[in-house]
Amino acid sequence: MRESAAPRALGWLMSFRRPFHENTLTSRVVLSQAPLSVTALFTTFLVLAFFPGVFENPLFVTFLVSQLVITALCFLVPWDRLPFTSFLLIPLLDFVSIGVGREGGQDSLTGLSLLAAFPVIWLCASGYYPRTARWLSFVGPLAIIWVPLFVRGDVSGPSLAKALLIPLMMLGIGVSVSVLTQSMMRQQRTLEEKDQQLQAGLEKSLRQEALLNTILDTVHVGVLAVDADGHDILMNRKQRANHVLATPQDIPDPNESQLLVFAADRTTPVPVADRPVRRAVLGETFTDYLVWLGAGPQQRAISTSARAMKDADGTFAGSVIVFSDVTDLVDALAAKDDFVSSVSHEFRTPLTSILGYVELLLADGPDEEQQQPLEIVKRNSERLLTLVSDLLASRNGQLLVKPNPVDVAELVRASVSAAQPRADSSRVVLETDIPVQLEAHVDGPRISQVLDNLVSNAIKYSPDGGNVVVALMQEDGHLTCQVSDTGMGMTPADQAEVFTKFFRTSNVRRTAIPGVGLGLPISKAIVEAHGGTIDVESTLGHGTTFTFRVPV
Fold first, then answer.
1. Which of 136, 260, 295, 370 has the most C-beta neighbours closer than 10 Å?
2. Total of domains in the chain
3. 294: left (phi over 0), alpha (psi -120 to 50) or beta
4. CA gap 128, 527 in Å, rounded
5. What percent of the chain has pLDDT over 90?
6. What is the pTM of this model?
7. 229 and 261 co-located in one domain
8. Is pLDDT above 60 for 4?
């Protein structure tokens, strides 16, 4: 159903307020014809006022009527239903109309030929058929002037040459407009391509964001990203639950200092400066920092880690903090420690009784055949009692040493001598590189315990035989002892955990070598109680070297 004239007229008037390219095709045709139509209207008023006799010329009247008809065609023809460039017929009709008007009114109105600039600009600014448009920008105005000359028979070289100025001027205008239009169209195409690229990039970014959010909401750890100023920029579902857990019931929107974040004892609030998010905002990088969130039965143990984000120029841009719920693991470790403590207490009483009775038997002066087995029982019972005491001390975080002047070289010889039978049975060559005497202010039994652990491990973890070398030296005011073997060795990951209580490497578990994983943690505690350090260097399949250093 065709729309009425009034709404179409209103829509045409509204088209002046919109960008040209956003109008309908009909509106653009009307707007393109409007300058010439308005000029023809002013020309009519001018002629009425000053040259009324021109209306007696039928050619001039034909010009005015043709302009009215052409304008009506622009408004009434459904251009969007016709082939797209069919509207270019309008400027061609304008050339004919202007030619008729010039011939009818040139005696009174000079410059009517210049009206050809309007269809020239329209043709060249349309951007369609640019070469043809430039050619018509010369031929159209030329025809306006030359055709009447040929019709009147007033053809001569001077008259034809005289008429070339305006067509050449129109050609210049047409070429300029055409070049500018083509340039703008290329820019428009470039902008549209960039817009498409931006749109595609935006859609890809939105897809990636949705994928990232889905992944983050799927994992069972809390993830929080903050910018350099500490503002949250990303928080997954698990972390939102953690935040709710740490929120006091009476404070719906707490700040960092008001969140329920506690230390390992589960009761002492962690200072704001030491809280995971605050440390991350300050640019710190850390791993496995344990805190407790919440209060009461809902309290959870959270292991936190943070990594800093950097801009392209290396400037700190924020951090990503990961919150892992390790409550079950912490409870299991606590239960294991309680079990070890309970068993150690149960061992201590019978061991004390065994030692007491052995000492009574030794005090009665047994014969030589009985003396040696009783001393072995005593020595092993004392070692086991020391191990039990160490387990209890490590459980309580206390391991005491009593330093005295001791010949450490003699301690090494005693430890190696005690391990020699086992080395022989394991086809391990046990060697030493120690001075005749080396005195240090240490706890002799404790250092012997460290030596026994290291030498025993070196032999134990050389199941296919090999060499074990124990070296002792003094350097820079420190006692340095190295125990090296050519056994199975360890991976870098195993080396990082080797001093953890109850840790055993995968190779050891696979080969079923006996042990509980307590010797090295206890040795480390003894060395550190002396103010020293213990290190490990190992290559899988080539052996291991343990080195401990204590002040002389």
1. 136
2. 4
3. left
4. 90
5. 27
6. 0.50
7. yes
8. no
